[in-house]
Design goal:
The structure holds two protein chains of two kinds. By secondary structure, chain A is α+β, with helices and mostly antiparallel strands. The chains are: A alpha+beta, B alpha+beta. Chain A: GO terms for molecular function: iron ion binding; oxidoreductase activity.
Chain lengths: ~750, ~160
């Protein structure tokens, strides 16, 4: 069958600007007109609509599933259950523990149980109500700490309720200190809340395979898992990226991929699935809630002596990225500070709460909130300025991390803190609209107090603990219409971050060619890895560079053959020698020739952690950012207004400075959201607020003015010296805001998000 | 119950027979093939579906198509013929988006804001008036700057 209407689209290939410039996005014109086709916009002749029946119970046995009534409903074409899964009814990013459709039990509210395909989405949803599932409701496992230790609780999976336990021991775990502070910190469940819902269109193919057009973060891992569940060889399951309406980690696990393909293959006709907002809250994983016990010891002069921590991460019903959260959480547990002695333990557990997995700042958001709260508490105990305490203990190039890894690239942590500390402070508010409560006019300033707080983070960039992390790029150079043109083809997912722009910039700079066409991302080229872990400019950028360099080598060989001159550079459409002399015009040299090369980029090897001591070179690179928040708090009503949120971040090399700024703005907004408003509220395993009325995300009114200072200290091990950008600002914003509210109110506030009742004590 | 209505969408009359419960958003997206307005929540909470109805901004997921019979409906796709509307240009100039899903709604909303305002727009007022349009990518600083630029050009 043919490709769907409205996808793929041709992005702009007539923009100028190489590395270090901020050219216009090639998808910009389409996006401002609403003509960029997102997965939910796809349409195919003869298509039907799929819908998913989900469990209303967080924990229950399934005695039977009756589909006859639903199947008989007019307009319904198919009703499928676990019995119809053609391959293995199990998938998962790290552990294959997640059923495509539930068989004899459900482990969370919202778990998929059956599928319907019908002529209209409303008919499909009506038919879902006619499916008769006989549940035996069980008591849910809901407390993460009990799940880790209480052997009397029901075992939710074969191997028990602990997904991963990791211990890290450094130096003397019994070290003593002059000043000791401790605390127990909790973080609620945050949602990615991307605006474009999960959606995809599956089109059955004549070879018995299927073509799936969808929004995702990682085409190849979806392909592999989907093919396995469909019982098809991977080459018969072909994926093409459509427009992605935000991701932030929430699209790394499968949602409708297998379901839509099952229905399409069953019916032999195209099937579209598109979740609504409420279903989206159940259709993807969330950020792990955490409970963290911390103790910091320091000398009376303020030098850190030790950190002890026990941290629990609630992974919910299935493993997803829980093993990585425990790995990141423990290895980053003491923050960007020099800590000679440490004893850290982390547990990631199964429960009957919603499944948690990837979200921007994976596994670093939780400990950063805890250790930055501790740093402020320590500063108070020492009578020191909180910024000064951080600067005094800041790690730097050559520092040894808690896992014994020596940092062999710039780590300007102290400078980042100095830079945000030294930015001018905003004046007291005088604007009627500027107080907490805004246009609701709830105060004229009485009861309003101001506070300043800092947050600093360290985040590992790219994949860790021994994974071979790589991306692939294919670059084709040829003359089209008299103009040398390069076609860049990768499977990397543009999710809004601007990777399409960056790929064009790199190809322009490396090939000296203005016109760069982007092939739609699909699985007909090698794996690019995920648009996650702040890794795509590093890895896919590196792969595009490598492919361009290979193409350039062949151009030089051609020049040597024709002119007997050694060329070393491509610039401005010319082939150039080392002395700057133009050897040939690129278009003339190429003539009818087509030069195509495919290359991978692999980052430096990393290593697993020692299972007993947690020592090891687990990470390839770290990103660092520091925030300073200024808040006004109405102590009578419990309302918070973030007045200013400034950030300094080291990005190694800003390939696209405007896009870097966008990442810092956006990440900061999400970190602010976690600090004061964002939480999926779960009671006994049941989600209470699956809507944008009740799950609040920052609006334009909540977004404070930001001063942003971007440092560029190149990492000598990374292409162009780049350092991952996307995650750190999400992480350090949260504790900066929380610490500012504490500074304003004097309250302990051990949990985020901080809600009005925490501030008023009501 | 079905009703025969005519929507004038982006300058062209579009007669269509709809179930009377159909929203303007569904009529546009599913019946008339205009997917420029996005369905982010379908409950009037996110603003991604914002269009202009007779020049005023409207959450198209909360307006029934029969209520727009005979009205001029403008989506981000129809704001300008060929070239871009100054607000669209400003969103590109100031990087007022990333994933772009909220953008058609943001832009229609911004055009509505400029129409509503009779004079200077302070930053605070821009934010107040644009606060019904969520952007999860957090491109808000760029959106404020874009609306300010467009307001300046309008003056």
């Amino acid at each position: 069958m043919s490709a769907p209407a409205r996808s793929p689209q041709v992005l702009d290939d007539k923009i100028s600007g190489g590395i270090g410039a901020s050219p216009q996005r090639p998808d910009g014109t389409l996006k401002v007109r609403g003509e960029f086709a997102y997965a939910s916009d796809l349409w195919h002749e003869n298509m039907v609509w799929g819908a998913t029946l989900r469990s209303p119970h967080p924990h229950a046995g399934i005695r039977s599933i009756g589909i006859a009534k639903a199947l008989a409903y007019p307009g319904v074409h198919a009703v499928l259950t676990h019995a119809d899964v053609p391959g293995e009814n199990a998938y998962g990013l790290k552990h294959q523990d997640t059923p495509v459709l539930a068989e004899d039990r459900v482990r969370y509210q919202g778990e998929p149980v059956a599928l319907v395909a019908a002529d209209h989405p409303e008919i499909a949803r009506q038919a879902l109500k006619l499916i008769e599932v006989d549940y035996e409701v069980w008591e849910p496992v809901t407390d993460m700490e009990r799940a880790a230790h209480d052997e009397t609780l029901p075992r939710l999976h074969e191997n028990g309720n602990v997904v991963r336990h990791q211990r890290i021991v450094k130096g003397d775990p019994d070290a003593r200190a002059d000043v000791v502070v401790s605390g127990v910190y909790e973080l609620g469940m945050q949602d990615q809340a991307f605006l474009g819902p999960e959606a995809g269109l599956a089109v059955p193919a004549e070879d018995g395979g299927v073509d799936l057009y969808l929004a995702t973060q990682w085409l190849h891992v979806d392909q592999k898992q989907t093919a396995h569940a469909l019982g098809l060889p991977v080459e018969k399951v072909r994926l093409t990226l459509s427009g992605v309406g935000g991701a932030f980690g929430g699209r790394e696990d499968l949602s409708m991929q297998v379901h839509s393909c099952m229905l399409a293959l069953h019916l032999g006709r195209p099937v579209k699935m598109s979740y609504n907002r409420e279903e989206s809250f159940f259709g993807h994983v969330h950020r792990h809630p955490a409970r963290m016990y911390y103790e910091h010891g320091a000398t009376k002069d303020g030098d850190l002596v030790y950190v002890k921590a026990r941290m629990y991460f609630d992974g919910g019903a299935y493993a997803s990225k829980t093993p990585v959260v425990v790995g990141n959480g423990t290895t980053l547990s003491v923050g960007p500070y020099n800590v000679p002695n440490a004893h850290i333990e982390g547990w990631g557990v199964y429960s009957n709460n919603p499944t948690c997995g990837a979200m921007r700042g994976l596994g670093a958001v939780q400990p950063t909130y805890a250790y930055e709260s501790q740093m402020d508490k320590l500063a108070t105990a020492l009578g020191m300025d909180p910024a000064e305490l951080r600067i005094r203990n800041a790690m730097s190039e050559g520092s040894t991390t808690v896992t014994g890894q020596v940092v062999d690239f710039p780590a300007p942590v102290a400078e980042l803190v100095r830079r945000v500390r030294d930015m001018p402070l905003p004046p007291p508010n005088t604007d009627e609209l500027g107080f907490p409560g805004g246009a609701a006019n709830t105060t004229h300033g009485e009861g309003v107090v101001r506070g300043i707080g800092y947050g600093v983070t360290i985040k590992n960039i790219a994949y860790a603990e021994g994974l071979d992390d790589y991306s692939t790029a294919r670059v084709r150079l040829q003359v089209i219409g008299g103009e040398p043109t390069a076609l860049v083809h990768t499977a990397a997912a543009e999710v809004g971050q601007g990777l399409v722009t960056v790929q064009q910039q790199i190809a322009r700079s490396e090939l000296g060619v203005e016109r760069i066409t982007l092939h739609t991302s699909d699985t007909s080229v090698g794996d690019a890895g995920s648009s996650s872990a702040s890794r795509q400019t590093y890895l896919t950028g590196g792969a595009v560079r490598n492919a361009c360099l290979a193409v350039a080598e062949r151009v030089y060989a051609l020049a040597a053959e024709r002119f007997g001159v050694e060329a070393t550079n491509l610039s401005g459409g010319k082939v150039v020698a080392a002395d700057g002399a133009v050897v040939a015009d690129l278009a003339e040299l190429l003539g009818e020739d087509v030069i195509e090369e495919t290359r991978e980029y692999h980052h430096r090897k990393t290593y697993p952690l020692d299972p007993e001591t947690g020592q090891g070179n687990a990470h390839v690179q770290y990103g660092f950012s520091a925030h300073r928040a200024v808040v006004d708090v109405d102590t009578e009503l419990g309302l918070v207004k973030v007045v200013q949120l400034d950030c300094a971040q080291d990005v190694g090399k800003a390939i696209n400075p405007d896009a870097v700024l966008g990442q810092i703005h956006g990440g900061s907004a999400q970190g602010l959201g976690l600090a004061v408003m964002e939480e999926i509220q779960v009671t006994d395993g049941v989600v209470r607020n699956p809507s944008f009325t009740d799950y609040l995300i920052p609006t334009i009114l909540d977004m404070p003015p930001m001063r942003v200072d971007i440092l560029e200290r190149p990492d000598p091990h990374a292409p162009y010296g780049v350092r991952g950008v996307g995650e750190p600002p999400t992480i350090s914003a949260t504790p900066a805001v929380a610490n500012a509210i504490r500074a304003a109110t004097g309250l302990e506030l051990p949990r985020v998000p901080i809600k009005p009742e925490h501030l008023t004590g009501t | 119950m079905d009703a025969e209505i005519t929507l004038r969408v982006d300058g062209a009359d579009q007669p269509v027979t709809v179930d009377t419960r159909t929203t303007v958003l569904d009529a546009l997206r599913e019946r008339l093939g205009n997917t420029s307005p996005k369905k982010g929540c379908d409950h009037g909470q996110c603003g991604a579906c914002t269009v202009l109805v007779d020049g005023r901004r409207v959450l198209s997921c909360l307006m029934l198509a029969v209520a727009a019979d005979g009205a001029e409906v403008t989506t981000a796709a129809g704001l300008a013929n060929g070239d871009l509307h100054p607000v669209q240009r400003a969103f590109i100039d100031h990087d007022g988006f990333q994933c772009g899903y909220c953008t058609p709604g943001q832009i229609c909303s911004a055009v509505g804001v400029l129409e509503e305002s009779d004079g200077e727009l302070s930053r605070a007022e821009v934010a107040e008036r644009m606060s019904g349009n969520l952007c999860r990518c957090g491109a808000y600083p760029g959106i404020v700057a874009a609306v300010e630029q467009a307001a300046g050009e309008q003056r």
